Amino acid sequence: MRILKTPTKHSPEDLKALMNTAKSSKDFKKWQILYISSCYKVTANYLSDTTGYSKASIYSIIKHPDIDINHKTRGGRNRELLPIKEELRMMENMEDTAIKGQIISSKDMKSSVEAIVGKAVSDDYIWDLFKRNGWKKHSPAPNQYNNSQTDYKKKTKNHLVTP
Fold first, then answer.
1. CA–CA separation, 62 vs 67, rounded Å?
2. Which label site among 22, 37, 38, 162 has the fewest CB atoms less than 10 Å from its CB?
3. Distance between CA atoms of residues 16 and 127, nearest Å
4. Distance between CA 135 and CA 155 in Å, rounded?
């Protein structure tokens, strides 16, 4: 097994301080790998068992110690069409319209979003937009229920037997 050597510009004391002030476990483990490999004679297998990283990741961290230390966290709105503030402002305007009693359809919302964004958006994006902002689908009852009651009354009236 190969003993790791850390070619870093940081002293072990600096690495220990950085390790103790890390804000995430991922940063902590990376600083820990650099600290342990600079202070002790260890192998990649040992560091792999200690930190849970693969040997290839450990070699990569040791080879390029300053790359990807201050990483961006995963997740979030990486491909957003509208920033959250603009999205909330647009939904508030739509809410004002809905409170006045006007019906808002997904087609209306889609056209207003496309006007703001400047390109076509999918129907799924509009429904996700509604869901993100707590809107639910409400539609008036179809007329068939009203018609069925009058039809029923007409049918039963014709079939009544008088004594």
1. 10
2. 162
3. 49
4. 41
| Residue 134 region by backbone torsions, left for phi larger than 0, else alpha for psi between -120 and 50, else beta | left
Reading the block at residue 4, the tokens are 């790791």
pLDDT of residue 160: 42
Write down the mean pLDDT value for the chain.
Answer: 78
Residue 154 has pLDDT above 70, yes or no: no
CA–CA distance, 120 with 111 (Å, rounded to integer) = 9
Model confidence over 53-74: pLDDT tens digits? 898 888 888 887 775 555 566 6
The CA dihedral of 15, 17, 23, 24, to the nearest 10 degrees, is 40
> How far apart are the C-alpha atoms of 153 and 146, rounded to whole Å?
11
Query: What is the DSSP-derived secondary structure letter of residue 4?
Result: P
Rounded Cα distance between 32 and 61, Å, is 11
Q: pLDDT class for 114, splitting at 50, 70, 90?
A: very high
The residue among 28, 47, 25, 27 whose CA lies nearest residue 36 is: 47
Buried b (16+ CB within 10 A) or exposed e, 22-56: beeebbbbbbbbbbbbbeeebebebbbeebebeee
